[in-house]
Amino acid sequence: MRFSLFFPSALVCISAVCSTPLFGQDGGELYFALPKGYGYTRSSFLARNDYEVPLRFGERLKPLSSFLRGDVVWYSLSRGTRSFFLPEPFIVRFEGGGLTEVVGNIPIGRETVDRSHPLPLFYRPDDLVPLAEEYKASGYEWRALLLREEANEAFVRMMDDAKKQGICIRVISAFRDAPYQSNLYQRAIDRYGPVQKAVAKPGHSEHQLGTTCDLTTDEIGYGLSSSFEKTVAFEWLRKNVHRYGISYSYPLYKQRITGYIYEPWHFRYWGNERWTLQSERMGLFFSR
Ligand SMILES: [Zn+2]
Asked: How far apart are CA 212 and CA 186, in angstroms?
């Protein structure tokens, strides 16, 4: 009896991480993920776009059915009397209902967002504050880098402490809303193809939490690259980041779990005192 209770929940957990259930198995809401585009006349990337079905970011889609073609799930959709097709990478999918509603700020450290779990598409915390210019990477001063107040304090405190030890750590990117993420996502698709793993879908990025930063240093000319891990700044972060309730989201050895490429520059503030103390005790500086 005991096992029969535990076994199904284990299955649900695994399938949620590894696959996209087809529409109809558990309901869900679908939204167009790209800044703009068109429906396809057939379920193939080689098919003609149906220019009479123009689509815009965040548009609610009406699914008729879904099916697997090669490695990609395709959806048959309808608008009025027209039907058209879209591949899964062009769609943000919410399981169940009501998730697209924005209800206040999500408590820091309790947000769930990854490849399988989107945030409400237009979620935007209301306590975002601008990062002071001196913490922005050289050449990015023009960018409005926003973070939730508490996260801003933690990152600033960390960068100040690093500076006292002669180490330069600066921010390249912070809060990104879903429409902005949609532009980055489109660029990654143009560059690497529709099933790319470099950039998160809108609604699926930790940057939308307002607690996440991409960091860099003068040692690599304030760039965003994996060479960051060879810098003195990164070494300092590796040893100290947990002291500020911050952790490193996409380690090299966890690519298969996170579903994203290795990103040594991507750090998230969790603000969980218990987590920080525990990490310190156990030496788990990069536990996520
Ligand atoms: Zn990032």
From this structure: 21
